[in-house]
Amino acid sequence: MSQTGALYKAEAVAGYADVPLEEKQRLFDEVKADMRFPDYIYGCYECGICVAVCPSARFYDFSPRRIAQAVAREDAELVYQQMQEDIWECSQCFSCLRCPRGNNPGGIITIMREVSINNGLASAREALEGYTRIIYKIMSTGTQVSPDMLQPDAFPDWGPEVKDVSDKLELWRRALPPETHHTTTTGWEVSDKTLVELYLIWHKTGALKMIEEVDEGLHMILEEVMEERLEEEGIEV
Ligand code: SF4
Ligand code: SF4
C-alpha cells in the first residue's frame, strides 16, 4: 500500500472516534449473536467473485468482499464504520451467494442493517427517511405502494407519462382482470383476516419496535391504526 493509501486507510478506520470501542464491539456482538450469522460467514479467500457479480459494486464505492473480510477478522471498528456507511449501498440481490467459500455477504449485510435499525444508528435513520410514505402504506393497508401515489410531483423523473397514468387511473385499474385490483388506494384489496394477521406478525416479530427506533412519529401513527383494528377484532397485544 502506498503511503497515501495507508494514510487514507488509517483515517477511514479511525472514523467515528467519538464512539467508544466498547459500543462498537457491543453492536458487532449483536450481529454475531444473530442465529443466521454462523451460516453466513466461513472465512474469506479474498477471491473477489462476490465483487465481480455485485451490481452495487459496479456503481458505488462498495464491496461485499470488504464486508466479509471485516466480519471474518472480527474488526469491530471497521464493522461499525460499514454499518454507518457501506451497508446501505447493497441492493439485496444476493448474487454474492456465488461465493466459493459458502459465505453470504448479502445476508451478513441484512443482519448488520437490522442491528443498525434496532439501535437507531444515524445511518439507518437517514437511509429510511425517504421511505416513510411507503412504509406507512404497506404497514397500514397490507399491500404495496398504491396506484394513487403515482403523481407527477412525486415522480418527476417519469416525465409526462406519469400524468397520463394518474389522470386515467380509475379507468385503467378497472380494465385489469382481477377484481381485487380495481382499487386505487391500495395495490390490491387485502382481506380483513389477512390484515389482522399481518398486524399481529409485525407486533410479535418486533417490526414495529424497529420502526420506533428510526421514526417515532411514524411508529405512533401505525400503532394507532393497528391497535384500533385489533381491538375491533377483540385481540389484545
Ligand atoms: S446482495 Fe448486496 S452485496 Fe450481494 S451481490 Fe447483491 S448488492 Fe452485492
Ligand atoms: S466470494 Fe466469498 S471468499 Fe471470495 S471475496 Fe467474496 S466473500 Fe470472500
Write the layout of secondary structure elements.
Layout: H1 3-13, H2 21-33, H3 37-40, H4 49-53, H5 55-59, H6 64-72, H7 76-84, H8 105-118, H9 122-128, H10 132-141, H11 161-167, H12 169-174, H13 192-204, H14 207-214, H15 216-232
Helix pairs in contact: 2-7, 2-8, 6-8, 10-15, 14-15
The protein binds iron/sulfur cluster (SF4) (2 copies).
Corresponding CATH architecture of the largest domain = Orthogonal Bundle
Label the structural class. Answer: mainly alpha
CATH class of the largest domain: Mainly Alpha
* Rg over CA atoms: 22 Å
Task: Give a short account of the largest sheet.
Answer: none
Overall geometric form: globular
Number of helical runs? 15
Binned, the helix content reads: 55-70%
| Number of E strands | 0
Beta-strand content bin: under 5%
Mean pLDDT, nearest integer? 89
Q: Under CATH, the topology of the largest domain is which?
A: Fumarate Reductase Iron-sulfur Protein, Chain B, domain 2
User: Unreliable runs, pLDDT <50, ≥5 residues?
Assistant: 1-12
Q: What small-molecule ligands were found? A: iron/sulfur cluster
